[in-house]
Structure formats: C-alpha cells, structure tokens
TrEMBL record:
PROSITE patterns: CHAPERONINS_CPN10. CDD domains: cpn10. Belongs to the GroES chaperonin family. This is Co-chaperonin GroES. SUPFAM superfamilies: GroES-like. Keywords: Chaperone, Cytoplasm. Pfam families: Cpn10. PANTHER family: 10 KDA HEAT SHOCK PROTEIN, CO-CHAPERONIN GROES. It comes from Pyrinomonas methylaliphatogenes. Heptamer of 7 subunits arranged in a ring. Interacts with the chaperonin GroEL. GO terms for cellular component: cytoplasm. The gene is groES. HAMAP family: CH10. The keyword tRNA-binding does not apply.
Length: 107
C-alpha cells in the first residue's frame, strides 16, 4: 500500500480499524450515533524528534503496528477520499501484541 503522506518528526499516520458491526437484540445503531474506533494501524512514521543535544530520538512504533489511541487524539485528515489520523507518538496509548491482535480479530 502506498502511503499518501510522510509524517514529520515524531508524528504517526494511522488508518482507523473498523470493528465488525454487532447487532444485539435486533437493534441497529445508525452510523451517525456510533463512536469512532480507537484502534488503528500505523501506516507511516516520522524520523523522530531531536533531543537537547541534537541527536534524533527514533520512534517506538513502526508501520504495520496495531495501536490504541485516545478518543480525541490526533488530527483527522482526508486524502483521496480516505480518512486518516495524524498524531504525535506520545498520544498513542499502547501497541497491541501479536496475541492480542488474533484475539480481537477472532471476535
């Protein structure tokens, strides 16, 4: 997948991961009432920010990581009819491990 933009410094480009729709009791929730997912896949990362000595600090996340972020984190951008999030690495709450990814995929 080609990435439409390259984040700068300690920023990360994320694509939200939509959870499969679950209908309980026959109630269908309209799209406007649904909360946006707080999980995403890292598509691109910046090169890192500089410390006080001028050395670059690399990021802990890498493209392909599945991450958890806050509800109001990042800035939403729309490029070529696709929605992405750009946020600083410190807004990411955690990175899912391989075991957690398979459990959530198998719901």
């Amino acid at each position: 997948m080609s990435v439409p933009i390259r984040p700068l410094h300690d920023r990360v480009l994320i694509k939200r991961i939509e959870e499969p729709e679950q209908i309980r009791g026959g109630i269908v929730i309209p799209d406007t009432a649904k909360e946006k997912p707080q999980q995403g896949e890292v598509l691109a990362v910046g090169e890192g920010k500089y410390d006080k000595d001028g050395k670059r600090i690399p990021l802990d996340v890498k493209p392909g990581d599945r991450v958890l972020f806050g509800k109001y984190s990042g800035t939403e951008v729309r490029i070529d009819d696709e929605e992405y999030l750009i946020m600083r690495e410190d807004e990411i709450l955690g990175v899912f491990t391989a075991a957690a990814q398979t459990k959530s995929a198998g719901r």
